[in-house]
Design a protein that fits this description.
Keywords: Cell membrane, Membrane, Transferase, Transmembrane, Transmembrane helix. The protein has helices at about 1-10, 20-45, 50-65, 85-90, 100-125, 130-140, 145-150, 155-170, 175-195, 200-205, 205-225, 230-240, 250-260, 265-290, 290-310, 325, 340-350, 360-395. By secondary structure, the protein is mainly α. The N and C termini lie far apart (about 75 Å). The relative contact order is 0.09.
Length: about 425
């Protein structure tokens, strides 16, 4: 009873005394009501795009020992593209009827996103009482990536939680468990989060690979005998996954195909951006690997952005995996502390639509290209910020392997310059004559 009274007292209306309290009081209602709207209104209402239906049908076919991988990929409808390991993991969906199963899947993903939100706060040493808590929650659920993950009923929320668990565990050096978190994600959507394995590779955390690779392999070995047409995945589905399509594809190659851009120009852009990514990751590894949270979150964001932009398929709602990179803005040396970075974020995070009845062609171009340009601009900004710090450090003679490129003003608390000794004034007792 006493605890209930204490809890209710927290909800008692009171006047804010500080700017932080004002912001918290203003943001929490917006954040909570936005979450409720996205989960129980927009998601339940659904949309013409339905990622859940093919997943449910595949789960039902798996449980009934029917063929799974024989789809016609010439249509633009959502297709079932999970590997056998992913099929095994999601098969319990078909235990319920389609409507209840979909509602449950929405709820599971919403809970996963909320848990990932909490882990993201904790990663940067923020509590639920901080103003960062409602601000981040509102930003996440107001974004296109969370909204459409729930509306289309995709599994992105669960995979994002796996990513956040992986980051926490790898920073705590709990390598085998970190591999479990990433391995489960790879088992469902391998190519998307597999680049994160580069982080334990360069940090020398070899045990991560035991479980991160062992779990997908084991699950596939278990699933293959249970899937009547598992060979079709290798001969029919996998080749389709390696192809680039010209619809619902914000990768460079996808928009290049849609607008009829010459292949040589598409490859030139992709190779140029790949070089930019490689140089950015090199700077991060050489000079920031000891700044663990900054290094891991920034490197992860750069690699996933590069995967979406330079790979065969990049869809806007995959930008959910970039939240750790965006959250580094609270760090003094973040590459996100400039306005071009947030122009980029608007491109791939905003739920706004730019289709115009009055200016149809320009509106369609902006709507179709804003995600591609947003991802590209983010990579360019990160490279330019780190490159500028490198050149400045070189001019000032501060280049040391393993030492940060940050100028002293970014970290005043680390200033180790010894102050000049202050001599005590002479007094009658100490004066000499």
């Amino acid at each position: 009873m006493y605890r209930a009274r204490v809890f209710l007292r927290q909800l008692e209306p009171r006047t804010a005394r500080t700017t932080s309290e004002v912001l918290s009081f203003a943001l929490w209602p917006f954040a909570i009501l936005t979450v409720l709207n996205r989960v129980f209104i927009k998601a339940v209402n659904g949309f013409i795009t339905d990622d859940f239906r093919p997943v449910y049908n595949a789960s039902l076919a798996f449980l009934n020992h029917h063929a799974i991988y024989g789809e016609n990929y010439d249509t633009t409808d959502p297709h079932y593209l999970y590997p056998p390991s992913g099929t095994l993991l999601i098969s319990p969906l078909a235990i319920l009827d389609p409507e209840k199963s979909r509602w449950g899947f929405i709820l599971v993903n919403a809970i996963a996103i909320l848990l990932a939100w909490y882990l993201l706060l904790k990663l940067f040493d923020y509590t639920l009482k901080s103003v960062a808590a409602p601000a981040l929650l509102l930003a996440m659920f107001a974004s296109e990536t969370v909204t459409n993950t729930l509306v289309f009923t995709n599994i992105n929320g669960c995979l994002f939680l796996s990513m956040m668990v992986f980051i926490h565990l790898i920073l705590k050096r709990k390598d085998l468990w970190a591999g479990v978190a990433l391995g489960l994600a790879i088992a469902v959507k391998g190519p998307l989060l597999a680049p994160l394995l580069l982080i334990p590779l360069v940090r020398g955390q070899w045990k991560v690979f035991i479980t991160a690779l062992g779990i997908p392999v084991a699950l596939n070995l278990i699933a293959w005998p249970l899937i009547v047409d598992f060979k079709q995945f290798w001969s029919h589905t996998l080749p389709y996954l390696t192809e680039s399509r010209d619809y619902f594809n914000s990768a460079i190659v996808g928009n290049g195909a849609y607008y009829g851009v010459a292949d040589w120009l598409v490859w030139t852009i992709r190779i140029t951006m790949a070089v930019i990514v490689a140089l950015t990751l090199w700077l991060l590894y050489r000079y920031y690997r000891d700044d663990e949270v900054f290094f891991v979150c920034t490197s992860a964001g750069i690699m996933i952005t590069a995967t979406l932009l330079l790979g065969s398929l990049g869809q806007m709602y995959y930008s959910m995996y970039l939240f750790p990179l965006l959250m580094t803005v609270v760090l003094p040396n973040s590459v996100m502390r400039n306005w071009p970075a947030w122009v980029a974020v608007f491109g791939f995070m905003s739920y706004d639509k730019w289709l115009s009845d009055r200016w149809q062609h320009p509106g369609r171009v902006v709507e179709y290209l804003r995600t591609t340009f947003g991802w590209g601009l983010l990579l360019i900004v990160a490279f330019c910020v780190l490159g500028d710090r490198y050149l400045a450090a070189k001019r000032e003679g501060r280049l040391q392997v393993g030492k940060s490129l940050d100028p002293a003003w970014m970290h005043p608390e680390r200033d180790t310059t010894e102050p000049e000794p202050v001599l005590a004034p002479r007094t009658k007792a100490t004066a000499s004559y």
